[in-house]
């Protein structure tokens, strides 16, 4: 006869529940910022995990969602460069890993985001029917150029700040996030 599962001590259960709430709060904030809801939840779970690595089964259990949902969310996150897929040596299960310094990477790719918009605004300025429309389009373009320049500067300052910090390490010598 199988033994009944051991009840968790109250502190562990409360800590786990607080962790789940924090993951859901982060996922909600990311979703409000434009990330699709399930990829936001998967990203938040990976980011909040102690080593930033989880299998599909672990994600399914932690988030209480279907395996198909996790698969689609992970595919999205891999495509945008926030997660990488690994396979443990000799293993058959994929492990999903939160990429280090995603926010910095996003800043560095701002030209990929703003470049096409700026080019389209250039075309709009040329094709605008009147001076008022040209001015609105030109100001929008100039703002995005400014934002891109500022983001590049922020990325440089972040790199300098990281170099100034003392390195943090976890067990096994892996750099913490």
From TrEMBL:
Pfam families reported for this sequence: MarR_2
TM regions (residue ranges): none
Sorted UniProt keywords: DNA-binding, Transcription, Transcription regulation
Sample GO molecular function, one term: DNA-binding transcription factor activity
Region described as Disordered: spans on this chain: 158-177
HTH marR-type domain boundaries: 46-93
Name of the protein in its database record: HTH marR-type domain-containing protein
Species for this entry: Phycicoccus elongatus Lp2
